[in-house]
């Protein structure tokens, strides 16, 4: 018989409690949470085993577990817990620590999780954006680019914020963010495989990716939550609103190489252009979803941490400042237009630059965990 010695990581337990998992102490392992969770598999169900491991400070096992990401924090387990524990909040705190563990460089994730670093978190993107704007005249001269820009463009793209400069700025940092995300995902993938110790895959990687893509697009798991059904609507509005805005943004950025621009969908878009309509609808969905998330959290009194609120408020600020920019542009209030557009670019920069370290990274780690669940056969064990 092989015995396993458990060495509790007391620091890890304290971090879970400090990160919103203070109800961990209330759990007495009745397993009601696992019984009531509609997403939990029959074999090795969660979140009971995660609550046990968290109480014992089993850091390595928890951070490498795909199950902490399969939980969607819908609140069903909390609603039925006889002790008032909140397993979803505990798992949320563990997910935050997983991002900190796998992200590179890790200090940026620590900054995002602590309010005292907020001034620095805001200052860095503002500094980079400001330096780019101040250096644009020198860049104009070196690259031989005309500094005059049409004022007819729907969004406030003036000589102060030429599109080629802004696109280059976001493309550069987007590339860095992409590499950071890849590093984190690879680390997480190999950690999950190490826990399974050479277990043969149940499905091909390609098929696993396709199955997960369908699950994400349909939000299938969210529909299984029973207590907080509004969470499905809020998450869907934010998700699809962001997808719509991202699609239009990518379209505009690739205008010089996009062959479809030769077929009528030419920038700048008029108000009734399909892409313009998509952008406005996406912005409305994003704002409505964020407001609904905020309402749900306030209604439940104290749900969420600074880490959660930072992401939601930055998303909301992106949407509101984008519409404000558009309004001031149509009203021809040039001074306010430029100021608000800079604020909009600042919040978009914050969202992009800190993507691998904020709650935005949930999308990539959860998607990776869902893929691995399909790949390893874990998803076939569901109820």
Helix/strand/pairing category: mainly alpha
Task: Please report the total strand number as a whole number.
Answer: 0
Radius of gyration: 23 Å
Helical fraction equals 55-70%
Alpha-carbon distance between the two ends: 31 Å
Number of helices: 17
Beta content: under 5%
Q: Quick one: overall form?
A: globular
Return the string of H and E elements.
HHHHHHHHHHHHHHHHH
The average pLDDT is 84
Largest sheet, if any?
Answer: none
Low-confidence stretches: 145-157
Keywords:
63% helix; 383 residues
Q: Could you characterize the architecture of this molecule?
A:
The chain has 383 residues and is an all-alpha fold. The radius of gyration is 23 Å and the shape is globular. Helix 1 packs across helix 7 and helix 12 packs across helix 17. The two termini are 31 Å apart. It is 63% helix and 0% strand. The chain is built from 17 helices and no strands.
